[in-house]
Amino acid sequence: MSNTILAIDIGSTKICAIIAEIADSRVQILGHGIAKSQGIKKGAITNIELASRAIKTAINDAKRIAGSNITSATVSISNAYAKSENSHGVVNIPNKEISIKEINRVMQTALYNANIPNEYEIIHVLPYNFRVDDQDFIEDPFGMNASRMEVEVNIVMTQKSNLSNLKKAVRSAGVEIDGIVLSGYASSMAVVTQDEKELGVGVIDLGGQTSNLVIHVGNSIRYNNFLGVGSNHITNDLSMALHTPLSIAEKIKISYGNLVEKSNDVIEIPIIGDEENSNHVSLEVVHAVVFSRVEEALLILSNALNRSKLKDQLGAGVILTGGMTKLKGVRELAQSIFGLPVRISQPKEVSGLFDELKSPAFSTVIGLLLYKAGEHTQYEINFQQELLHSKVLYEENLNDIKIAKTIHDVEDQKELQQEKTQQGSQQESESFSFNDLPDIAKENNNPFKKMANWAKQLF
Question: Under CATH, to which class is 84-155 assigned?
């Protein structure tokens, strides 16, 4: 059975919408649309009307390519909106066997025990450690025999006003929201391997105006953070330092942005507001501006790693994704600052993935597709307060039921039934019947025949 979905990544620099079909947990991309962000700054919606217009443009482009008129979507929500809190829950197991019902109950208990402010709404409840009786760090408690189960969860929440503004912007674009996923969580699904999850890994999405950090230790996300610095700040710094238009500064960043090699070459660039004259600038200046801004962002992210108190558990190191990873030398600089192994990752390969979408800048939207395909955390309570899992709850045993498999089987059954019917008719013909007696009207003088005729009429 296939299911058509729409995923929308609402970023600070771009909005990407992808329509895909999911069949047997496999994703097939049908169409996509990309629009420049408007009304969104540092991950927060600042103008609902402008944001809605940009979202609608991306959605319409995706619909045109896919030939689909889907009306509901799963959208990303920026880490700028998010706040996390850990909680703990304990339940007794009356039937001594852990089922989905008990897992849901213990997670709901942990949510109930959490100190959630009234103005906040839940996005994710992610369990990272199950404890069964006295046994700790259970990977999957389903089906185990126990009398007591505990769970530690990471609760991701957002202010109701922020969520309401996001819903209004998407609804004004003609689409209802059927799923909300933290953008850092979505990015991690698109780039993290199973081995890295088990070893512990940090995922940093270096975006246009923001950078997101999530730490995956154990079975799920343990920590998330947000930094209001991205690649656009490099462009702004270049524009001010070189006194050139933003569009020119962006081209310089893409063409000459290099964190490793220095050059003494000189380039000629236009001056802001002066179409007749130009400046000659050394690439050393460009290198210094780019290096200082990237170094600043990575140092802040390194401090966030230290504050998480989970840095020692990152056996797989750090994964960098997002648009800023296109800068040459960013991996080497990050590795020296973090003191951990660092790799740059593109999103996982998905069937029908356009070449345009294979860049690290599209990790979040690919992660949204994978989330809908079931690659979320093993157990999760989503923003609709539903428990997500992949367990089969009921299985029917049909081994003892005999069903005709071919037309010949059906014909054999029909012939058998006809034989039984004929045998029954033959038995009835051999039994006594009043109809077998001669007609009484022809033998009126026979007293015995009169009595037989009377009995025939009576019965």
Answer: alpha beta
